[in-house]
Every structure is written in structure tokens, then in C-alpha cells.
Amino acid sequence: MERNLTPVAAVGGIAAQPAARTDTAVPGRDVDVLATLLLGLIGGLVGGGAALAGWTAVTRRRLHRAAPAT
User: Fold this and answer.
1) If you ran DSSP here, which 8-state letter would residue 65 be given?
2) Higher pLDDT residue, 40 or 62?
3) Fewest Cβ atoms closer than 10 Å to its Cβ: which of 7, 43, 44, 51?
4) Straight-line distance from the first to the last Cα atom of the chain, in angstroms, rounded to the nearest whole number
5) What is d(CA 21, CA 23) in angstroms, rounded to the nearest whole number?
6) In the structure, what pLDDT confidence band is assigned to residue 52 with cuts at 50, 70 and 90?
């Protein structure tokens, strides 16, 4: 399979910018900011604990065992 690695010119100016200016996100009236932050914190702690438990389980299987004496 042949690949063409020549650079391609951008069409119509900079494509990464949106056409209209976007506003910052503002939470709605029914959204509790503190509850959202606490939910994110709890989710991060649970995810970190799961990652740590998985890492521990994998490294325990690969412990170096002493060779039997001959």
C-alpha cells in the first residue's frame, strides 16, 4: 500500500476555530455545584482505588520466588 505524506493545505482559513464565539458553561438553576464536585471526587477515589487494586493484583502474581535448593 502506498502512502502520500505530502502536507495538505488548509481549506478556508483555520479549521480549528469555531465559526461563532462560544460562551462559558454556566450550571443551570437545578444543578448543585457542590454535589457535582463531591460526586466527581468520589468517582475519582473509587476509580483510583480500583486501579490500585488491579495493579496490586498483577504485581503479586509476578513475585520472584526463590529457586528450590538442590
Assistant:
1) -
2) 40
3) 7
4) 57
5) 7
6) very high
Chain segment 12-46, per-residue pLDDT in tens:
555 566 667 777 777 777 878 899 899 999 999 99
Nearest to 38 by CA among 46, 28, 50: 46
Cα–Cα distance between 57 and 61 in angstroms, integer?
7
**Cβ–Cβ contacts within 10 Å for residue 11, how many?**
6
Supply the DSSP string of 1-62, one letter for each residue.
--------PPSSS-TTS-SSPPPPP---TT--HHHHHHHHHHHHHHHHHHHHHHHHHHHHHT
Instruction: State the chain's mean pLDDT as an integer.
Output: 77
Of the candidates 52, 70, 49, the residue with the CA atom closest to the CA atom of residue 60: 52
Distance of CA 50 to the CA centre of its chain: 15
Cell of 62: 509476578
